[in-house]
Amino acid sequence: MLLRRITKHVQDQNWFAVGIDFFIVVIGVFIGLQVSNWNEAREQRFSETEYLERLYSDTVELTDRRAHYDRSRPSNVIALELMTDFANGDTEDLSKLRNFFIDESNTDSAQWPQDVIAAGLSVEVVADSYACNLLDWSSSLTIPPSELPTASELTSSGNLERISSEKVKGALLSYMQEANRAERLIPIVQNKATDLADNFPELFEIRYLKDVNFAFDEGESYPHYKCDFDSMRENKAFLNALNRNRGFYAEYTNRAVLPASERLAELQSVIEDALGIPHANEALLTQ
Question: What count of other Cβ atoms lies within 10 Å of the Cβ of residue 116?
Answer without folding.
Answer: 20
